[in-house]
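User: Hey, my collaborator sent me this sequence without any context and asked if I could get a structure. I don't really work with proteins. Can you help?
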Amino acid sequence: MAKGDKINFSTPSGFPEFLPSEKRLELHLLDIIRKVFESYGFTPIETPAVERLEVLQAKGNQGDNIIYGIDPILPPNRQAERDKSGETGSESRALKFDQTVPLAAYIARHLNELIFPFARYQTDVVFRGERAKDGRFRQFRQCDIDVVARRQLSLLYDAQMPAIITEIFEAINIGDFLIRINNRKVLTGFFKSLGIAENQIKSCIGIVDTLEKIGESKVKQDLKKEGILEEQAQKIIEFIKINGSVDEVLDKLKHLAQNLPETEQLSLGITELETVITGVRNLGVAENRFCIDLSIARGLDYYTGTVYETTLLGHEALGSICSGGRYEELVGVFLGEKMPGVGISIGLTRLISRLLKAGILNTLAATPAQVMVVNMQEDLMPTYLKVSQRLRQAGINVITNFDKRPLGKQFQLADKQGIQFCVIIGSEEAAGQKSSLKDLKTGEQVEVLLENLAEEIKRRLT
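Assistant: No problem. I've predicted the 3D structure and written it out in structure-token form, which is a compact way to encode the shape of the chain:
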């Protein structure tokens, strides 16, 4: 770069940057999510941001169009050496686009060090090279949990997922939400009963999954393009529109299975779905928090059983705020053995962006400080420092103002940062071992002995 050239320091498109109030909100939500995850025994891990490209592409092509490749930029002298030696590198690397495929590789790498069923959570950043637009990012934080077993995994782990989703979103207090549950075996089995060929079923499931986005008419058109007959397409639409209470939908599915040919997989899916619903109820999840939605399929090919999508009621345009499902073969791709798993994912960065824009959430104060000790006199700074430390030792977050400025300006500074209380100590207060405590929210100012200051602030904070 030539001297004098201007550097474009704007944020790259699709890569978020947080102000303090936004970052504090993210950390607050992460704390809630982590506590719920850990209450169910999930343990934290971290996988590299960079994986071998062949690992990320190991299960189907769902990531091919969105993966960011990594190619180091070497200084000219190093590049020349590399070219001269013919060294081109033995592996292609890329940034991980989700947490599930890297989890499979992680388990393969640490198979003999882990205890199964292995229940883990991650809150890492992932990268997708898709087109950036409102609410969608190329870099975002995902909060994932998965349980993986060797050979068999109880369906009660599937049932735990809606309970976990419910606890998280009730704690965040974002309003009414609905967890929509389905089983891909139900869809696959129904398609088979209609005589749809095995090699068409995956694409049909993908089309069904777009119903909310593209509408019934377009779904029919897309099914027709896949070679599905008009009569079959109509039956598919009628099937995925089956509704009613959870028990009503299950009854309709059982009745339908009795009157269709080749329903072994359909019946298995219905049985699994009923088992999961029973578990969800036994875990105390309220009936108004979940339903069976036969149009839910999840787009990624590795899902094989239970699938979930969570919708914020009254804000359906926001899309799914938490999704996931069961997979049977993803981990086995690396190990050659059956290792079933089930998990869910919250795209936290996208969720925060959408909830803030919709006015459902608000950012937090720019600082975690609850108290500012104002600077009345430079010679009293030793007192201010001692008082500040006492308050911190009592568990109160404190900013000590080291800059001398008019008292009103200091109040304005505290208020602008969302700090509720100011501690005022002048010569007279210091001599009497007392202070004035000003509540910036109410404007009230009271005199408090220094020995009682922490207790009084805590009382007023609650």
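In plain terms: The mean pLDDT is 91. You can pass these tokens on to your collaborator as they are.
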